[in-house]
Amino acid sequence: MKKMTCKFILSILGLIVLSATTSQAFSNELKFGSVAMDIPAIMHRKLTPLTAYLSQAINKPVSLQLSPNMASAINEVASNNVDLAYLTPVAYIKAHKKGNADILVKTVTNNKASFQLMIVVRKDSPIKTIADLEGAEFAFGDKAALLQRAVVVGAGIPLDKLGAYKFIGHYDNIARGVQVGDFDAGILKDTKAYKWESKGLRILYSSPALPPYNITVSSKLDKATRVKLKNAFLALDDSNPRHRAIIKSLSKKYNGFAPAKNADYDVVRTLIKPFN
Fold first, then answer.
1. pLDDT at residue 70, rounded to an integer
2. Domains and CATH numbers, the chain
3. Which end of the chain is more exposed for a tag (fewer CB within 10 A), N or C?
């Protein structure tokens, strides 16, 4: 009977220790959020190699917590519900303003730490200039993506001069919508625009160079972890086959990450100011 009692007590103690260990593991876990640039299954496939790499590099588990749209992604990192997030330029600016989220690193695309937004039409479209967009039906992505609208207005066509415009989500939705004729024109990130040039689309207008997508961290993330994360991102080397697979999983056009500071995004702040 005493043996049974001892075994029982030891079992309970074992469960308590296991529970405490498990609880500690979960408390140490970092949550990685992301703006929804593609459907969740694709975003999961793109980001999983990166989170696996980060988990090993900083010796702490990093798990994905994807958001269904841009507004949600902004709120998650601004409210400290995720520790770091893969965001658009405007999403970072809003998260910084709302919850003092900080920029960590920015992406490098085709060896440049900048990107462009491009207005596209069908190759056989009669639209040849920005002025020809007057009265056209236009496709935007997420309604929260102010930079898309700011670029169109900056190109010289006020939104009220368009025939109509709709927000239809992911870039691929925009490209397909223009390709099949549901829309006369739409706006794409440069990498998507180049991809769809071979599928029947033509680039009508390219924006000036803009600061790119980035990794943003929560204001409550401790400094030591920030340093480890930053070093891990900057250590990704495109010439290293294993690192290259991680980088290209996120985007085939990416070469890695570069240091970033808040002031890098002032050009975007100026561009979207009329829309705030």
1. 83
2. 29-113+212-275 (3.40.190.10), 117-206 (3.40.190.10)
3. N
